[in-house]
Amino acid sequence: MPSKRLAQSRPPNPASRPLRTRVWGAGRLLFVSVAVAVTFGAFFLTGMRVANRAREVKVPELRGQAVADANRALASVGLIMKIDQRRADSKVPADHVLGQDPDPGTVLRRQRVIRVRVSEGQRDPFVPLVTGQADRTAEIMLAEDNIQIASRASIRSASYPSGVIIAQDPPVKSRSSRVSLLVNEGEGGTGFVMPDVIGTSGGRVVDILRRHGFRVTVGAEVTYPGLPPGVVVRQSPQAGYQISSGDAVVLEVSH
Questions:
Q1: Residue 194 contacts residue 224 (beta carbons within 8 Å)
Q2: For a pLDDT cut of 90, what percent of the chain falls above it?
Q3: How far is residue 173 CA from its own chain's centroid?
């Protein structure tokens, strides 16, 4: 009896599959690939947003804080402080923050620089030199620098002109809002009554008073409608005051 050879199984030929089956398999593979890519992209973008948000902080409020406290507040959120300017301020104590840039609440990346302006506190003005000036002139000079006369003492001496500042405390170029003055009243001599010179020619008044030994200063020229230039509109001392030779007289004339 002839032997029978066992038929060996062969893998199916892909080419023998129906076209519809092959197209469906390729479509499923493409769909899975796109889904995986979209999922990866979504996770990637989400991770990037989370990472960026982790690096972003809000700028804290610094105004009014001491410099050391403001520096600690910025360091706690990963920001850096830089003092951009210092200036005097009568309302904010020294070494406290006057302002900041950027403003509080601004969202920034960590390690960004925050610029601050810092107060130096109240700084008194420099005292001008008033020694050798007439009493009234010294008073005007100090008032222009917002310096008050704390006290005024006087002596009578022939060594200095009458009505002149012979000493001041504190000395020139010191910082202070108050000054004490020592005024020479001069030795007793012939007394005069200050006349009323308002409305008269300033040049003529200056000439007459100086001939009698008074130290006359034209303090200012002011605009006065209806008057020609050079007419006296104010005087110090006022008319009727007792004055002596060598005293200071200050006039203001029309411009």
A1: no
A2: 51
A3: 23
Neighbours of 127 (CB within 10 A): 22
Largest CA distance in the chain: 175
Higher pLDDT: 129 or 219? It is 129
What is d(CA 81, CA 74) in angstroms, rounded to the nearest whole number?
7
Q: What angle do CA 117, 123, 127 make, to 5 degrees?
A: 145
Burial, 230: exposed, middle or buried (Cβ in 10 Å; 0-12, 13-18, 19+)?
A: middle
* DSSP tag of 171: P
Per-residue pLDDT for 82 more than 50? yes
* Range 171-194 burial, b when 16+ CB lie within 10 A, else e: eeeeebeebebbbbbbeeeeebeb
Element (H, E) at 42: helix 19-55
**Continuous segment of H or E residues that includes residue 206:** helix 202-211
Q: What is the percentage of the chain residues whose pLDDT exceeds 70?
A: 78
Query: Cβ(154)–Cβ(167) under 8 Å?
Result: no
Q: How confident is the model at residue 54 (pLDDT cuts 50, 70, 90)?
A: low
